[in-house]
Amino acid sequence: MYLAIREIRFAKVRYSLIAAIMLLVAFLVLFVTGLAQGLAYDNAASIQNMNATHFIMEKDSNHRFTRSQIKEQELTQAEAIVGQNNVQPLGVRMTTVTAEAATLKLDVTLLAVKPEGWLMPSVIEGNTLTMKSEGQVLVDDKLKDSGIRIGTVIVDQTSGMKWTVSGFVTQQSFSHSPAVFLSERDWQQLQLLSSTRPGVSGMDTDKAYSAIAIHADKAQVEHLAAALPDAEIVTKSAAVSAIPGYKEEQGSLKMMIAFLFVISAFVLAVFFYVITIQKSSQFGILKAIGTRTTYLLRSVTLQVLFICAGSLIISVLLVLGVKAMLPSGMPFQLDASTLAISCGAFLVMSLAGSLFSVWKVARIDALDAIGRTAA
Amino acid sequence: MRERIILHNITRKFEDGGIQRTILDQLNLSVSEGELVAVMGPSGSGKSTFLSIAGALLEPTSGEVLLDGESIIGKDKQALSNMRLHKIGFIFQSANLLPYLKIEEQLLFVAKQGGMENAQATGRARGLLQKLGLSQRSQAYPDKLSGGERQRVAIARALMNDPAVLLADEPTASLDANRGVDVVRMIADEVKEQGKSAIMVTHDDRVLPLCDRVLYLEDGRLV
DSSP secondary-structure letter at B181? Predict the structure, then answer.
């Protein structure tokens, strides 16, 4: 402690330089992490917010909600196995809508859920949907920026169906498009209108959904899989990563983060290793006059931690500052736990980086101090 | 009179390219309280090895080293480290101060390592610096000091933990003649005054009059 702090005080410029590099790397790590999380949320918020463990999807749908089609009959079967309360039908369709009295077109995702079911998000403004409501939808509050208000009528471009916005929900999106929640009944109507199959009749008895959200434990999942041969039980995280673009987006960002961690470890390792070699005669003297090796090792490690923690604190403040300045539409999310995990990982990586120097210091021989210092 | 360091029948052999070389051969030396012994000898005669063994940095192949009656043989690294800290004061060729500690801190650091209390350490450091005429420089960094001043700080540092033995490795090598004599006089005075035993390896004939005994290292023995 005594040595570590005084050395940093003495060689301020040297240590500030390395701290500056660490600060920039740490800032970048935190910023990209925030961006990755924000994008993930923007991409899959609606699904992630759903209180489900698994989804039942059609076989061969590649875990994609928009491709899958599930019949009412399967819903009934699922209800029989895991219980009615643990099963909720879900309709997903990506479409384009126009707001009546406006020329503007919007890409949205229609999410059909049972009103009063557990997939229904809570309303932050306006009225929620009830079993009786018809032709009414809840929309993500991001659509406010496009001029959508409570009472605005939106028209589905493909089916021509009209819905009135009855309320707003928040943080609801699917594949980067804002979510529009409609009731199950309106969904069936929509299915009828947009059905490409000609001459279908008796659709009332043949309702179709995109997927079924379930609460189930492992045994129940196995049971379901056996009972529904045409369906596939997909975990929530698999369903999320199958959302178009999700895996690719997250993959590249995660790779950047991983590289930044490794880079930071190497930068620290090289810096402290070079300094340690430069100081090896000093370490020899210190050992000769009776300083314990463990003390010197602690000293080196402490310096690494000190530099790292200092840079982290400043970069966290910077990131929080930037976060406050970002426009609300920017997908950026950094909660306290992610921040803590990133900082922790950073400290661990820096310690890994210091191992090299620690090993070097441990090997320096006190004998070097005698007779060989003239050089 | 007490002998604070005793080297008894010290032999040290090195394996060098498959050939056993005997550097020190049945070497004996005792230095009593208040005595400054100069050890001279050509390069390669084993002066460094001798000093390393006396300083508990190197174990002899055979023989016994007693510091204040305590043997250094068969101790683990940590125990040796502790002995160096408390029993031995080293003075090196060039002062070898830590560049990032102020003069007073150089001494305080050693005291801290030795477990001395802060107040006592500060008092002792000030006292030593005053005695060696360094009070004015106590808040300076070593690079602001002249060579002689630095070597005086090194003496103060060596004395800080009140060791039994002072070991000096050519303390005048990096100084001009007058400064060299000054520095050795200081060592000699401290040794007398505080009843320490001191061994100084040197090439410098001019400082010999200040020493109580002058020995030559030849063929692994002191004569």
Answer: H
